[in-house]
Amino acid sequence: MAGRKTKPSTEIETIESAIENALRPGDFIEYDFSWSFTSGLEEVRSIIENFTIREPVRGIDLIETFIAACYEKADEIDDSSGSFGDFVEGLFCSWVNARQSANCAAKETVDRLLAWIDNDDYGFTYNLEKEVTRFLDKEGLEEYSAAIRARFDAAVKKEHHRLLWGGTLKSIYAAGGDFESYISICNETELLPVDCETLAEMHLSNGKPAEALKWVEKGLEIESNTQVYRGSSYKLDTMKRDILTRLGRPEEALSDAWRDFSKHPNEFTYNELISRIPKEQHAEYHNRILEVISSAELETAVPLLVKVNEKNVLADRLRKTSIKRLESFSHFKSEPAAEILAEAHPDVAGKLYQAMGMRIVNAKKSRYYSAALSNFKHAKHCYEKAGLKTAWLEVVKDVRARHSRKYSFMPGFELVVEGKGPDTKPSFMDLAKKRAGKNRF
């Protein structure tokens, strides 16, 4: 009726409407849109969390409604990225926080949480039993520990369940800083390298680096004596060196980093080694490092030679390498090498650019043809700079012979041969600057 005033919605109703609008019921969310879709959900979650600070009890109801609504949406989204599942897991953690803020009974919180985990048909709570330990307070951890311990003890003849609940107990004990209980559960299941990492971190947090070092070394020993990768730790090597330095033994940390680099030369071990070498010893170590790199496999040596800026050594090694071999290199290894060699060693840079271009065209990767044309343009320039026009003409002959039927590629390639090429057009930003009248900087 005209002129009739509608009743203003309550804040609760407004938030519920926001939940429904964000979830878009009835619309299927394709993979490519899952991230932006989840971002919209995060905005609503933020609104609810702010509301819960003021009214925790009613906030709990809103979060439970949101969780239930997400389950209703589960069949209407391609969540291959896992972003939607991560979001729902975060809602459960918000729910735990809200219940603790409202002083709800810890046992009831744990019981309801485990009931959700037991009846989850979509896997939203797959890692929740471990993740939630970061949010439970002391009383909540105690109740959670007792409940999980009961499940662990009941799974005597079910190894998979025993490992699952044992892992959850480890997370609970780590969150509570309960060192003895953590050791106890490791004795009842198995001690893994990642457990040694956790135990070392506990000692470090208690100001006991010497005890932490023992656990780090134990973890490294387990990793060296087993082929099983479950429960491995990528941090133990770095932790050991950090602890040695903290204990006033930086020389041992440097020695350990050197052994690791010598055995496994790569960018990670190089960066770790460099971080341990005192500034005054950099020059001394340079030749030793170069010796290790020079004896490494070509795929390993190239990015390291770029990193240490050894252009002559890099050029000598690549000059002896066939184009076919260079074509197997990834763009991420070839391009940086070509860029640093273009000025002083244009003949080698030309080979690299040629190989990058041929790699794309040979693989028929049409969506990257523009990159291939750019590579061939650089190859032409480098070969001509090196006085190797014949080498460039051989490239042209080879491309024409093998790829003449690639109609989406050859016209652009012929422009490169003529000295025009794809890069002669003004870039998007050049056009924008021209339109804005800002070509002078």
How many DSSP-defined strands? 0
Number of helices: 24
Order of helices and strands: HHHHHHHHHHHHHHHHHHHHHHHH
Globally, the shape reads: extended
Structural class: mainly alpha
Terminal CA distance reads 63 Å
Strand content: under 5%
Largest sheet, strands/sense/barrel = none
Note poorly predicted spans. 1-8
Rg, rounded, reads: 30 Å
What is the residue-averaged pLDDT?
A: 91
Give the % helix. over 70%
Topology:
Layout (H helix, E strand, L loop, with lengths): L10 H13 L10 H21 L1 H18 L9 H19 L4 H13 L9 H4 L6 H17 L4 H17 L3 H10 L4 H13 L3 H16 L11 H11 L3 H14 L3 H10 L5 H13 L3 H10 L3 H9 L3 H5 L3 H11 L4 H17 L6 H17 L3 H15 L6 H8 L10 H9 L5
Helix pairs in contact: 1-2, 1-3, 2-3, 2-4, 3-4, 5-7, 7-8, 8-9, 10-11, 11-12, 12-13, 13-14, 16-17, 16-19, 19-20, 20-21, 21-22, 21-23
What would a concise description of this structure say?
By secondary structure, the chain is mainly alpha-helical. Helix content is 70%, strand content 0%.
